[in-house]
Write a structure and sequence with these properties.
Strand order of the largest sheet: 2-1-3-4-5-6
CATH class of the largest domain: Alpha Beta
Number of helices: 14
Largest sheet: 6 strands, parallel
Order of helices and strands: EHEEHEHEHEEHHEHHEHEHHEEHHH
Structural class: alpha/beta
Distance between the termini: 31 Å
Length: 370
């Protein structure tokens, strides 16, 4: 088969989950298969003569129309790659600042791309529901398990961990009272990994005294910070995604909680946190909402109610054998279905399918002209 020559075009200068999972490790595996694949920052030269397929990831500032039109004129294949639905960014989301740019470039790419790759079936449905029939192909997020190290285990106390950005403070608030109640009854540790790269006391001062714009997440943070005064916890500041995988292993969580509100934006995301916890040997307990209901076992899901979260989390705390059983099943599923080594050929197939989309499009246009 003809060698694929692909350029992933990104808008980020630092590694983030979308770039690493949807571009970087995919490029590495395709190169191992004999293709020529590179990643470039969007501001740099696109080296149009060296590639046949141009994959645009996430959002860009300003219009992409001249670039996309020029690539089409040269006969290049254009792919839009996304694992977020930018139309669904709410006014309370910190990313709302870039929503207009994100939506602009997203709409342009949906219009001009020969094919669209997404991480979930829900995201595919959202795009096709809004924009009509499009060539949307689902390739789930996968991990390179060689990049993850199993945690050491052996904690004297059961360690419960939560990890996420400031986007997810409202999610954490849904379960923070459960953590308080469990700590009163059991000798457990609680760890917050993320929210910001500064200590939480500094962040509280910032959102209280220095932050000029008022966002719901900043108000939520102040509520969370007040509640945390009643809890014994450790905070691990946010790190780059390159460092994240090692830090997650070092954090050594016995249980990883993944509370998630049922929102339009959230329903289109993937179960990446679930995969990452399994990769380091941490059992997950997640909200019974999409995307988790599409992939996780009913035993590992919980309705977003205090009593439900308390009951299921308590069982994981007190029943070590049950905790091991659930972890074993989760690890087995993730390893079987979300290993990039097993999925790399699907990426190859997807790009060949999109090339055929383009050929069919040209044939249709040629037929109409004749």
């Amino acid at each position: 088969m003809k060698k694929l020559r692909i350029l992933f075009v990104n808008n980020t200068k630092t590694a983030n989950p979308s770039y690493v999972v949807r571009n970087q490790i995919v490029a590495e595996k395709l190169n191992e298969m004999g293709h020529e694949v590179d990643c470039r920052i969007s501001g740099s030269s696109l080296d149009v003569d060296d590639y046949d397929i141009f994959v645009f990831n996430r959002f860009y500032e300003g219009t992409l129309m001249p670039t996309l039109a020029a690539l089409r004129e040269m006969g290049k294949t254009i792919v839009y790659e996304t694992d977020d639905y930018y139309e669904a960014i709410s006014d309370n989301n910190p990313f709302h600042k870039i929503k207009s740019s994100a939506v602009l470039s997203s709409r342009e790419l949906i219009r001009f791309a020969h094919g669209i790759t997404v991480s979930t079936h829900q995201l595919k449905e959202e795009i096709q529901m809004r924009y009509g029939k499009r060539n949307v192909l689902v390739v789930p997020n996968c991990l390179d398990f060689a990049e993850y190290k199993k945690r050491k285990g052996g904690n004297k106390k059961v360690k419960i961990g939560w990890q996420g950005s400031n986007i997810h403070i409202s999610d954490l608030l849904m379960v923070i009272d459960v953590i308080e109640k469990l700590q009163k009854e059991h000798d457990i540790e609680f760890v917050i990994f993320g929210i910001d790269d500064k200590p939480l006391e500094d962040m509280n001062k910032f959102v209280t005294e220095e932050m000029k714009e008022k966002w719901k997440w900043s108000e939520d943070f102040k509520i969370l910070y007040k509640k945390l005064k009643k809890i014994k916890y450790t905070h691990i500041p946010s790190v780059s995604y390159d460092e994240f995988r090692g830090k997650l292993s070092e954090a050594n969580f016995d249980i990883g909680i993944i509370p998630l509100e049922d929102t339009w934006f959230g329903r289109s995301k993937s179960c990446l946190k679930f995969y990452e916890y399994a990769a380091v040997g941490t059992v997950s307990l997640a909200s019974k909402v999409l995307p988790y209901t599409a992939e996780m076992n009913e035993k590992d899901l919980v309705k977003n109610r205090f009593d439900k979260w308390y009951a299921k989390l308590k069982r994981l705390v007190v029943d070590e054998e049950y905790r091991k059983e659930r972890l074993k099943e989760q690890e087995k599923w993730v390893k079987r279905h979300r290993d990039i080594e097993k999925m790399k050929s699907i990426w190859e197939d997807v790009y060949r399918i999109i090339i055929n989309f383009k050929k069919n499009e040209k044939s249709i246009i040629s037929a109409k002209r004749n």
